[in-house]
Design brief:
4 strands, alpha+beta, 3 helices
Length: about 100
């Protein structure tokens, strides 16, 4: 099975919940990386007054690497445990990965 990178774009108020789900299944997710980001554009609803003033919504990017089937299982798990989470995601093929 090919390796992929799953990227999740998470509203900051849900970041801890998503991380808890990921940490609860170390067999599927041995690790991940999270970084702060800002959501821009017409597809990003600006709700809080601070978002309206800033013109962007705070987000967290969470990146996971692994077999495609496992990453799809992670997506199913997130759909099940956080059905209204408003997560945006994408899967991308990974050409190579390793440690240096």
């Amino acid at each position: 099975m090919a390796d992929v990178m799953l990227t999740l774009v998470v509203p900051n108020d849900l970041t801890q919940h998503v991380e808890d789900v990921l940490l609860s299944c170390p067999d599927l997710v041995p690790g991940f990386t999270s970084t702060l980001a800002a959501g821009h554009g017409s597809a990003v609803p600006l709700v809080a007054p601070s978002e309206l003033v800033a013109g962007h919504a705070p987000r967290t990017l969470i990146r996971l690497l692994g077999e495609e089937a496992r990453m799809r299982t992670v997506l199913d798990l997130l759909r099940e445990q956080l059905p209204k989470a408003r997560l945006f995601y994408w899967l991308m093929p990974v050409i190579e990965m390793g440690h240096l």
